[in-house]
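re: ur question from the group chat, yeah i did fold both. here u go
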Amino acid sequence: MIQIDTFEGARAIVQNFRIRILAVAALSLFALVFSGCGAGTSGTTNGPGGDPNATAATVNGKAITMEEVDRGVKQQAQGQDGKFSPLELANARLTVLNTLVQQEVMFQKAEKEGVVPTDDEITTELNRQKVESRMSVEEFNKQLTQAGLDEKSVRDNLKKSLAIKKLVDKVTGKVEQPNDKEIEDFYKGNPEVFVKKRGVRLAAIVVDPNNSGQGDTTTNEAEAGVKVKEVLGKLQMPGSDFAALAREYSEDPQSKGRGGDLGNITEDELKQSYPQLATGFMNPDFTVGRITTVVPLEGKYYIFKLQERIDKDENLTLESPDVRPQINEMLVNTRKQLLAASYQAIALNEARVDNLLAKRIVEFPNELSGARPASTGTPVPAATTPAATTPANVTAPANGNVKADKPADKPAPAANANKPK
């Protein structure tokens, strides 16, 4: 696994952790709608709490139904919930229910703070996500029907996610910018962080053939193949903009949001995970600015662009580009993360939560068999963890294109392996 040992990587980790806490259970529209998370499906009614109309928990008197819980389980399990044993299903349900409870607590706080979005704001965001999905109206409505949802339920989900975001922004808005002394002290106290090591800075457009939510528009190999061909065709057009195409087509949230930028990855990190990838990108014949062909990694398809090659280690100073702004951003985000986590902890402590599902499990523990349905003969992934895939090594031929080689049991370059520029 690529280790994150530079400032930019640490900043990315803080930001990702902050998102998990701040957007607690604010599930995105298309993760809910287009990952096949319909309610009342087979495989989600065995064990305690099997009635979809039953109340799983209440938050200050507001009910969360088993239907909502099982919808989340199906989304988390990527449609594999029918293979769960009663014991695995109960664990998955409790995990999802805890998330829904946190979401409801934060949404009720948002209501009290008067930061619930207007109908117009919901419509604007819904339209934006429809456009971003690149689906036709007919395809969109078909996906809703298959998921057992309608536009009202989609709007309700979106209302909660936008409200929680507004609440978080309001709560963390009181965090002030650090002064120059604090920035300088941070720099002096973390000299090992500010080293730009020999390696490369990459950008990527990622196409994911798996139905993993997070804004994916391809859900199988055939759709992924069509999309990859479309992207490659546009990249070959004169004046094509890799960053703009990454924002439009990439199905990896980080690369999409950063115009494809994956940050700096050291040569040692590349050698550890993909020695042939390191050989290709570190080869002077592979010129900066060159774009690869399709590279399969971890079950996804990457199109890389070499943005920079760093030939030797460089110690960064406070006057190096982006160092001061990055320290400032990290300190602010760390404070916001702590503030938001504390706010959420207080909100959960104050809420009247009655977890009826947990009570039923305690009352009927012997109903929870560990046996999976007889029809499945393959291992089932953990309820909240997608199944691992085997990536591929890559080589760089003389013409500079990177192509797939034989599979290897090594992890792909981490998308958040960002370094100071």
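okk and heres the other one u asked abt
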Amino acid sequence: MSPLLGLTRRTLPVLAFALIFGLVAPSAIAQNPAPTPVPGPAIPPGPAMSQEDIQRIARDVQKKLLSLPNLGVFDWLTFGFQGKTLVLTGYASRPTLKKDAGNAVKGIAGIESVDNKIEVLPYSPNDDRIRIAVYNAIYTQGSLRKYNANQGRVGQALGPGFNGPAAMAGGITNNPPMGFHAIHIIVKNGNVTLYGVVNNEGDKQIAGMQANATPGAFKVTNDLIVQGEAAKPAEK
């Protein structure tokens, strides 16, 4: 059975480990790290770091990043290696996440330096409106509720203090939905990209259609990966 089938609250922490960073093989070294969850072609580890060291460090990095309390559905983080330099990439909806991610991985044995290339998304009330609209469109859709720890219950997902039309018109970046989400929503200047892993091609297409139907979204890129399929190479 796919690990995404039959989601339960008890299994969510384990799935978060696999989904957020599972697209980066721990044994791979990114040839050209970029702000995307899909690394470039892998090259064999050089003499600076053994395969065992890379795997150990990758596990430590995953643990550190997943423990960040401000990592959420509107963020997407990944990492790679260049020699003994750890390269952090991805997107952060808040500047504090980039800083916290960099600080979290400092001091891990075997890493000599950290190159923090996480892109901080620009502050934009319009992007905030798109985030909540895409979130609602995806996670209230019946077949996609299983990818959300809150099972599509948006009121519970948003939490106390984030209710009413005024609040939902903006500000979700600073008060994002709580809990595990398999589908991450990145919004930049009105453009939407979906990252994560889903059970099947049908769910991927439904998520893309829901996002495309969101008013105000200029362009939607569906980079969701179907469980068991290889991620497509990053665009140059």
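fwiw on the second one: The CA atoms of residues 93 and 121 lie 5 Å apart. The chain has two domains: 12-120, 125-226. idk if thats what u expected
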